[in-house]
Amino acid sequence: MQKRCILCADPDPELRSNLGFLLAGENCVLEEAAGGATLLTQLRRSTDLVILPQQLPDMSGFDACTALRRQSAAPVLFLLEKADESARTLSFSVGGDDCLEKPVSCHELAVRVKALLRRYCVYGARPTGLERRLRCGGLEVDTAAGTVWQEGREVPLTELEYRIVLLLASYPNKIFSAENLYESIWEEPYFYSCKNTVMVHIRNIRQKVGSGAICTVWGKGYRMGPSKP
User: What angle do the packed helices 194-209 and 85-93 form, to 10 degrees?
Assistant: First the structure.
């Protein structure tokens, strides 16, 4: 079985050592990056997950994630110095998939890493009961490859963005509220503050595919496709 490659840029050597030990039995290899520029150089197609601190020696973790997203759709887990609403929102808006506040338990971090890898692999494979290709809202979702296409061009979506598009395209006539989307995609209980997280991801998707692909049904939520009269 091919080992999962995790690229970690957190500067704490104890955290990296303990995390590497915990994941060694999970068929994972932990690689270390000393800074943002180094991380972008080490980033490969085989990189399965990236762990980013809020601040790197040569740039912020948010800037590193923005640059990373031009090369890869691998899930990104942020380790934030203070996980307040603004930091969490920013981490998601630049393409992050999950975040934890430091100091963090290495056991909890390992659990989050394994959960992201599991979701990434599952959603990158062919979902049970779905056609290989879904066409909706001017987009084509290749469920076997885990990619989204528009007019013959692959759209560079993050894992969470892809999952949102996949869910909406799988049920094109269904309206999903922010609560529906959050609990389905993030698999966590919904709180009112989570609405902004959903809105940020929808906005990022629209910036990549155009505003007409996902329709806002005022007072109800979102669905795939152009607005209906």
Answer: 20
Token representation of residue 61? 């973790």
pLDDT at residue 120 greater than cutoff 60: yes
pTM of the model: 0.59
Environment class of 99 (CB within 10 Å of its CB; exposed 0-12, middle 13-18, buried 19+): buried
- The rounded distance, in Å, linking the Cα atoms of 52 and 80 is 9
pLDDT tens profile 9-31: 999 999 999 998 998 888 888 99
C-alpha to C-alpha distance for 88 and 100, rounded to whole angstroms: 9
Neighbours of 5 (CB within 10 A): 18
In which band, very low, low, confident or very high, does the pLDDT at 126 lie, cut at 50, 70 and 90? Answer: very low
> Is residue 136 within 8 Å of residue 165, measured between CB atoms?
no
Handedness of CA 13, 37, 200, 54 (dihedral sign): positive
Q: Is the dihedral of CA 50, 55, 58, 59 positive or negative?
A: positive
For 70-87, what is each residue's pLDDT tens digit?
778 888 999 998 877 778
Q: Where are the alpha helices (DSSP H) in 125-218?
A: 159-170, 178-185, 194-209
CA 9, CA 30: separation in Å to the nearest integer?
10
Neighbours of 124 (CB within 10 A): 16
